[in-house]
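Thread amino acids onto this structure.
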């Protein structure tokens, strides 16, 4: 069996670097926005000390700026994979009848296991 460093070098990546960069450039700020938004909602009362709310508000604004700046930076860093990005966008906007059926049936499948999704 080859050493770990040799085995890792031969693994095939499922997603290209450009896809992974763009994914994390969108996912990280989105999760931070979600968490800080919930935290501000919980700590919004004026009667409570606002220390945490001010901190979460600052983090929320930073995450908003990250959501604006990170995706273009990821696209620039992964510019070698631009054809793949165009192909992914085209695929994301082309919906089939099965996609629409899935959207309609999904809520039913949550409560009724007999419902089969396309």
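Threaded sequence (118 positions):
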């Amino acid at each position: 069996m080859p050493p770990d460093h040799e085995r890792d070098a031969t693994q095939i990546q499922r997603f290209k670097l450009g896809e992974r960069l763009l994914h994390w450039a969108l996912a990280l700020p989105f999760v931070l926005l979600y968490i800080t938004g919930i935290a501000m909602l919980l700590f919004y009362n004026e009667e409570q000390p606002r220390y945490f709310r001010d901190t979460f508000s600052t983090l929320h604004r930073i995450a908003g700026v990250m959501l604006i700046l990170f995706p273009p930076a990821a696209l620039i860093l992964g510019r070698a994979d631009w054809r793949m990005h165009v192909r992914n966008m085209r695929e994301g906007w082309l919906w089939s009848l099965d996609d629409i059926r899935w959207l309609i049936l999904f809520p039913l499948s949550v409560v009724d296991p007999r419902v089969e999704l396309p």
